[in-house]
TrEMBL record, chain A:
Source species, domain of life: Bacteria
Residue ranges of coiled coil: none
MF-aspect GO terms: iron-sulfur cluster binding; metal ion binding
Listed name of the protein: (2Fe-2S) ferredoxin domain-containing protein
Cross-referenced PANTHER family: NADH-QUINONE OXIDOREDUCTASE SUBUNIT F
Organism per entry: Alkaliphilus pronyensis
Keyword field: Iron, Iron-sulfur, Metal-binding
Pfam families: 2Fe-2S_thioredx
TrEMBL record, chain B:
GO molecular function, a single term: 4 iron, 4 sulfur cluster binding
InterPro entries reported in the protein's UniProt record: Nuo51_FMN-bd, Nuo51_FMN-bd_sf, Nuop51_4Fe4S-bd, Nuop51_4Fe4S-bd_sf, Thioredoxin-like_sf
Protein family according to the UniProt entry: Belongs to the complex I 51 kDa subunit family.
UniProt cross-references to CDD domains, sorted A to Z: TRX_Fd_family
Protein name: NADH-quinone oxidoreductase subunit F
Domain of life, source organism: Bacteria
UniProt keyword terms in alphabetical order: 4Fe-4S, Iron, Iron-sulfur, Metal-binding
Pfam family, any one: NADH_4Fe-4S
Length: 129, 548
């Protein structure tokens, strides 16, 4: 296909965003981070599916500057899969038992509107050295 | 199919490829497939990250974790630990020299902290073989903007006002060059890209073409529109096979999308680009020699005037710009002259890419705003001198430049300040020397290079560089006298003043500048010569006594 106008180029740009939106370019600024615990206990309770559901949901909602990162076990094996949401300037929020089906509500309410889904949070009382 | 959640970026620049990054990428792909993660995780081969000392580089996004010195055997751990279980691999993280703590994000490394990337912005970020990744980051929008909403005059004005100067070394204002070419009354004009990077130790042009070839293609089309040329040429040395392959691929992708060819963006402007391979002669970086070589003649310079802008390729008005110069153009058109000219110093705007090499911890490619000091580049970005040795000097401008010593390290770098210190910007090679290096030998090394590369057209260049080299050889072998030092000085200025082109006019610079700053090191050889002669004399005397 030949590009015949600037609008056509911009449309191709839109369609191509998926190829690079995971990259960490320099001018992107602050990110909202969604950390999914991927220890053995997390994986066995479905963390991989949870993580992929977040990626899918974020794409569906066309959210920019949100990244989903897999991290190690945080020690709350009784509540796996665990998810931590870091919004710049806010205290981290921890969620427990986040199976695939709960992902959509966290994205819609917490990430988009800034309202924590209280029913799914867990209290983390440990300090990091 | 599941959405991709992770990109594994593997450096596929020439440096990292030489240390098996191709195998790293292949192993990563195989193991990711074996573990059943192919749908979620993509391996992307990118251009150079710049941190060549620590290659092969592997970066995991969006996690933004930077792994260094990754070997093919490390692929298994990266997949099984990092990708599957979300655990960082400590042993592959970077550690600053003399520090124990690992740094996992590149922006926290002193090597990257002071850098500002305009020409290299996509290198190490995108797959250079995929035009859609370039477009996704705003690629070809500058060309679209120029063709649909700017007149050629407006483009020239924007580039002129940005203050961009030639990055190949000369520092001539790019906008002025374009203006002169534009004003020529001719139906046939050419836009030429000089990719004949010949300065030993410089590899910024190669890295740009390998890592972000579309930026050069886009800029050449913008330049063609500005000056009224419908044909572009890239003159590139055959020793850069990877850059050539990626450039060829970029050209065919651009043609496929109609970004090169007839009536681009629906305008009346048509443009296409050919590649001319050079055999790798240093002199062909000089624009008239380059054009002679393009025409199939010997790569020898012509006397200027006429300048190429008046009478260039096959006698037609021709504008010759360097790769790095072009790589700045799309950003200038997109973000404006005002933004660009706010970076750098008063007379040198924007950034400059330097190839940092020699006795320095962090060897690699760095892009910094003009006006940064040499001390910041060598000690902050470069991490200082290895093994706790003492800094002695830095050669900028390659074989055409000179040495800069400790006392001038705090000078803000731009075209003019480097000239004032007896060196030059050149294409941006920066070779650091420590206390163990002998400066006469350094000068000899550069003269051997220029002597070999002098094309032979003018006598001062052809004979002069050879005689200077012979005298340097005489000095280092301990046979020279004070009279030889006088001759070499005189000869150096003679070659500088009377050679035909820039190559030999600047060839004596390493000698002149090392004589100025390290006169004692020259004298050391002479003293030795005197001593050995005395010894020889006394030997002869003794022999005479014995014989008698």
């Amino acid at each position: 296909m030949k590009i015949k106008s600037l609008d056509q180029l911009k449309k191709i740009r839109e369609e191509s965003m998926g190829r690079v939106n995971l990259r960490h370019g320099e001018a992107k600024g602050d990110f909202i981070e969604i950390l999914v615990g991927m220890g053995t206990c997390g994986i066995s309770s479905g963390a991989r599916e949870t993580l992929n559901a977040f990626v899918k949901e974020i794409e569906k909602e066309k959210l920019e500057n949100v990244k989903v990162v897999s991290v190690g076990c945080i020690g709350y094996c009784h509540s796996e899969p665990t998810v931590q949401v870091n919004i710049p300037g806010h205290k981290p929020v921890f969620y427990g038992n986040i199976t695939e089906d709960k992902v959509s509500s966290i994205v819609k309410s917490h990430i988009i509107k800034g309202e924590v889904v209280k029913a799914s949070t867990i209290n983390i009382s440990h300090e990091r050295a | 199919m599941a959405r991709e959640r992770t990109n594994v970026l593997v450096c596929a620049g020439t440096g990292c490829l030489a240390s098996e990054s191709e195998k790293v990428a292949k192993n990563l792909e195989l193991i990711i497939k074996a573990r059943g993660y192919s749908d979620e995780v993509k391996v992307v081969k990118t251009g150079c990250f710049g941190f060549c000392e620590q290659g092969p580089i592997v970066k995991i996004d969006p996690d933004n974790i930077f792994y260094v010195r990754v070997g093919p055997k490390d692929a298994k751990d990266i997949v099984d630990e990092h990708i599957v279980k979300g655990r960082k691999i400590d042993r592959l993280l970077f550690r600053e020299p003399d520090m124990d703590e690992a740094v996992d994000k590149h922006e926290d490394m002193s090597f990257y902290k002071k850098q500002l990337r305009i020409a290299l912005k996509n290198c190490g970020l995108i797959n250079p073989e995929d035009i859609y990744e370039y477009i996704a980051l705003g690629g070809y929008e500058a060309l679209g903007k120029a063709l649909t909403s700017m007149t050629p005059d407006a483009v020239v004005k924007e580039v002129k006002e940005s203050g961009l100067r030639g990055r190949g070394g000369g520092g001539f204002p790019t906008g002025v060059k374009w203006e002169i070419a534009k004003e020529q009354d001719s139906n046939v004009k050419f836009m030429v890209c000089n990719a004949d990077e010949g300065d030993p130790g410089a590899f910024m042009d190669r890295s740009i073409l390998e890592g972000d070839p579309h930026s050069v293609v886009e800029a050449m089309a913008i330049g063609g529109y500005a000056i009224g040329a419908d044909k572009g040429l890239v003159y590139i040395r055959a020793e850069y096979p990877l850059a050539i392959a990626r450039l060829k691929n970029a050209l065919s992708q651009a043609r496929e999308l109609g970004l090169l060819g007839e009536k681009i963006f629906g305008s009346d402007f048509s443009f296409d680009i050919d590649i001319k391979l050079g055999a790798g002669a240093f002199v062909c970086g000089e624009e008239t020699a380059l054009l002679n070589s393009c025409e199939g003649k010997r790569g020898e310079p012509n006397f200027k005037p006429p300048f190429p802008a008046h009478k260039g390729y096959w006698g037609h008005p021709t504008c010759v710009n360097n790769v790095e110069t072009f790589a700045n153009i799309p950003a200038i058109i997109n973000r404006g002259a005002k933004w660009f000219s706010s970076i750098g110093t008063e007379k040198s705007n924007g950034t400059k890419v330097f190839a940092l090499a020699g006795k320095v911890n962090n060897v690699g490619l760095v892009e910094v705003p003009m006006g940064i000091t040499l001390r910041e580049i060598i000690f902050d970005i470069g991490g200082g001198i290895p093994k706790g040795k003492k800094f002695k000097a830095v050669q900028t401008g390659g074989p055409s430049g000179g040495v800069i010593t400790e006392k001038d390290l705090d000078t803000p770098i731009d075209y003019d300040s480097l000239l004032a210190k007896g060196s030059m910007m050149g294409s941006g090679g920066m070779i650091v020397m420590d206390e163990d290096d002998n400066m006469v030998n350094i000068a000899k090394f550069y003269l051997e290079f220029t002597m070999d590369e002098a094309c032979g057209k003018c006598a001062p260049g052809k004979i002069g560089t050879k005689r200077i080299y012979e005298l340097l050889n005489k000095i280092t072998s301990g046979n020279a006298t004070m009279a030889d030092l006088d001759s070499i000085k005189q000869l150096s200025y003679m070659v500088k003043d009377s050679s035909l082109c820039g190559l030999c006019q600047t060839a004596p610079n390493p000698v002149i500048s090392t004589m100025k700053h390290f006169w004692n090191e020259y004298l050391d050889f002479i003293k030795d010569a005197d001593k050995t002669k005395e010894e020889e004399k006394s030997k002869v005397k003794n022999k005479a006594v014995i014989d008698a």
